[in-house]
Design goal:
about 325 residues, alpha+beta, YmcC-like fold, 15-stranded mixed β-sheet, about 15% helix
Length: about 325
């Protein structure tokens, strides 16, 4: 291969690697509305039949003619459906007389899904590491390595990701991108306090600072803006997915998450493409396949039997160029 062509290839690898790890990726082509999380049901649920009317109260025995008749107690009202709506992680569902029957019918399903998701999230081992091989194209040329690691203790968490070019790509275009997320964790999942991006060991202006008490988030040097419930950063959102009730079942509704990328804070849409069996260097996994469509598209494969960890990540740019991260090694404190 001519040297000039090879150098151009390596330069292209370096340029695309910056986009691969998402700091500059637009996950949605839709215009950015105010930051709101929303969940839409996959299909309409069949309303549960209203409760059967209460049996009429038996009439009291007729009193003797000589006794003064006693006043009969007023019949108790028949039970009616509550008109209070249920609040899901994505917004209100039901409410009012028209939504009462639907709320009663879905309450058990919502509760079961929430418990399942919380159990998955809380079961995540206190420490763990996922190592990835990074390929250009679909398992084409290996151009880098990536490592995700996390620690959870005393209600706090830290997640770090390091991605580096390797082999000839590293020789001609050395590149290391670090992402770091810090915050607290509870039954609802991750609540970031800070998120930063470093390139080749140097701090950048790509960062996000979350003030949950004030309900504000600041992106880089920009003025602070309102913070939405359930907001995540570019790294924590990979692991927050295990806490979302709608991902615990087989039927997954489209969802939107408010995410701080280090450059902006917007709502990003995720759609489920169904369950897939995939093979990576770390083994064979039954996964849930998610996609964030747009000019630049990101796809995630979450391992069903491994705490919904991301075992495969693919980024495709607007020109059709793609990079894949395939899990090579998964190590946790519970292994």
């Amino acid at each position: 291969m001519p040297l000039a062509l090879f150098a151009a290839l390596v330069a292209s690898i370096g340029a695309h690697a910056l986009a691969l790890f998402l700091p500059d990726v637009d996950l949605s082509t839709a215009p950015a509305p105010p930051v709101v999380a929303e969940i839409r049901p996959v299909a309409a649920l069949t309303p549960v039949a209203p409760p059967a009317p209460a049996k009429p109260r038996p009439k009291p025995p007729r009193a003797a003619k000589q006794a003064v008749p006693a006043a009969a107690p007023a019949p108790a009202p028949a039970p009616v459906a509550s008109d209070e709506g249920h609040l899901t992680p994505g917004g209100e569902v039901g409410g009012g007389d028209e939504g009462a029957a639907l709320d009663q019918g879905t309450a058990a399903e919502q509760g079961a899904a929430a418990e399942a998701a919380t159990a998955v999230g809380q079961a995540l081992p206190a420490q763990g590491t996922i190592r990835y091989r990074v390929y250009r194209g679909t398992q084409g040329l290996e151009v880098g390595r990536s490592t995700h690691s996390w620690q959870i203790a005393d209600g706090s968490y830290r997640i770090d990701a390091l991605t580096e070019t390797s082999g000839l790509a590293a020789f001609f275009k050395p590149l290391a991108i670090e992402l770091a997320s810090r915050g607290r964790i509870d039954a609802a999942g991750y609540h970031p306090y800070s998120f930063v991006i470093r390139r080749n060991g140097q701090e950048t202006r790509e960062r996000a600072d979350f003030d949950w008490a004030a309900g504000m988030v600041q992106i880089g040097d920009k003025p602070a803006e309102p913070l939405a419930d359930g907001a995540q950063d570019l790294l924590s959102f990979h692991y927050q997915l295990a806490f979302l009730p709608q991902l615990a079942g087989s039927g997954v509704a489209p969802l939107a998450l408010p995410i701080a990328t280090g450059k902006k804070f917007e709502r990003y849409r995720l759609q489920a493409l169904g369950d897939e069996e995939i093979t990576t260097p770390a083994g064979v996994f039954q996964t849930l396949h998610l996609i964030a469509p747009g000019d630049n598209t990101t796809e995630l494969w979450l391992a069903r039997e491994r705490w919904l960890l991301p075992v495969k990540i693919r980024h495709t740019d607007r020109h059709g160029g793609s990079f894949e991260q395939l899990a090579d090694v998964i190590q946790t404190s519970s292994d």
